[in-house]
Amino acid sequence: AKYTQWLNKHDKDLNPYIGKWIAIKLNAGIVASGKSALEVKKIFESKYPKEIPFLYHVPRSDEGNYVLCQG
């Protein structure tokens, strides 16, 4: 629910990332982005090895929402 709230609050910030995957940290915002979830996960884990990534695909107008979360 916290990540959904963050996404809703920052929806305008997502425009540069349309069609890409992003990793979000609630206290830091978008901390990684890329073309694939695996790429973004690797970037996130290199920066924050002890934390669990929250990955979100910023959809184009013709796509649905995709969220990957590990826990």
Provide structural commentary.
With 71 residues, the chain is α+β, with helices and mostly antiparallel strands. It has helices at 2-9, 37-47; strands at 21-25, 29-34, 54-57, 66-69. The chain has a four-stranded antiparallel beta sheet with strand order 2-1-3-4. The longest helix is centred in the middle third of the chain and has 11 residues, at 37-47. The two termini are 15 Å apart. The relative contact order is 0.21.
Short description:
With 71 residues, this protein is an alpha+beta fold. The chain has helices spanning 2-9, 37-47; strands at residues 21-25, 29-34, 54-57, 66-69.
Index terms:
alpha+beta, 71 residues, single chain
Major β-sheet profile: 4 strands, antiparallel
Strand content: 25-35%
* Radius of gyration, in angstroms, nearest whole number: 11 Å
Number of β-strand runs: 4
Average of pLDDT: 90
Q: Assign the structural class, choosing from mainly alpha, mainly beta, alpha/beta, alpha+beta, or little secondary structure.
A: alpha+beta
User: Helicity level, as a percent range?
Assistant: 25-40%
- How far apart the termini lie comes to 15 Å
| Strand neighbour order, sheet with most strands | 2-1-3-4
Q: What best-fitting shape do the alpha-carbon axes yield? A: globular
H/E order of the elements?
HEEHEE
* Poorly predicted residue ranges: none
Total of helices: 2
